[in-house]
Amino acid sequence: MKMYLKKIIYVFIVLLTMQLNAQEHSTDISKDTTSIGQLFLKDGKNAALGVKHSFLRPLSWNKKDFTTLGAVVAGSLALATVDDETSDYFVRQKPPKLFQEVGTRFGSPQVYFIANAGLYGYGLFTKNEKLRKTSVLIISSSFTSGVIQSLGKTVFGRARPNSGLKSNEFRLWSNEAELHSFPSGHTVLSVTMAHSIAKQFNNTWSKVGVYTLGAIAPISRLFVGAHWLTDVVLGTALSIAVVDSVDKFLFNSNEYKYDNVKKKNIAWNISFTGNQIGIVGTF
Questions:
Q1: Rounded to an integer, what distance in angstroms lies between the CA atom of residue 216 and that of residue 136?
Q2: DSSP conformation letters of 13-41
Q3: Right CATH for 2-26+50-282 from 1.10.860, 1.20.58, 1.10.10, 1.20.144
């Protein structure tokens, strides 16, 4: 099973690099004449600046940003009232074993590192700017969201569904793994990578395919009782917000060339309808 999953990961990386490489050539972008070492230093600098920007971004929030934050918090509190019921429902289901295995591994730090290292390595040695930019976006975003989710797990100390405790059990500053439910780390890594990659495609169906793969890990964590629904939803919201912030920073920095993909990004919004709450993507 493990060898089979490794093959899936390798095939995914190859197909992704081929697709992004094709888009790079289709836009007729000239080859970079700088050395690989200079490109590496440039990307490292931009990644560090992206992290700095994303952490400092709340200091310059406007009214719209605070309104969005308030909506997310209010919606999450409303959704939390049914966390126990939704968890019971997911745990009762019996998804295919392969689905669970793929979900667990696709959202793990090891697979994230392998996938992004392969993506960036290929982009660096072929001097493919689109691949390098994508990796810089992933690295900056995942570092920021990863630090936030790691601190959140310890600070809030929320009990996991499979711990036998209720969703409203919080033990602040806990070091116990069964009390590290909020937010979902698998969700943060998986959605961060998926959202970063999907931004690079012009084709809507390519975006849908990438987001579908990115959703496997978060959903699989619900089935095994590792996280509550709000852990996954807020992990998703955090990832999207950070990726969008870093992407905007890189775009404004003019360090990388952006084509018409910028005009075709999916706009994500929190939606409230009656007794429902959801994250809606507008093409």
A1: 23
A2: HHHHHHHHHHHHHHTTPPPP-S-HHHHHH
A3: 1.20.144
Q: From the DSSP assignment, how many helices (H) and strands (E) are in the chain?
A: 10, 2
Cα–Cα–Cα angle for 87, 271, 145, rounded to 5 degrees: 65
Instruction: Tell how far CA 165 is from the center of its chain.
Output: 28
Question: What is the C-alpha to C-alpha distance for residues 136 and 232, in angstroms, rounded to an integer?
Answer: 24
Q: Is the Cα torsion angle 179, 115, 204, 124 positive or negative in sign?
A: positive
Q: Name the 3-class secondary structure at 197.
A: helix
Among 16-30, 99-113, 230-244, which stretch is predicted with the lowest mean pLDDT? Answer: 16-30
> Pseudo-torsion of CA 192, 196, 197, 202, nearest 10°?
140
Name the pTM for this structure: 0.84
> In the structure encoding, which two tokens stand for residue 18, read together?
């081929």
The answer to whether residue 197 scores a pLDDT higher than 90 is yes
Q: Domain-by-domain residue ranges, the chain?
A: 2-26+50-282
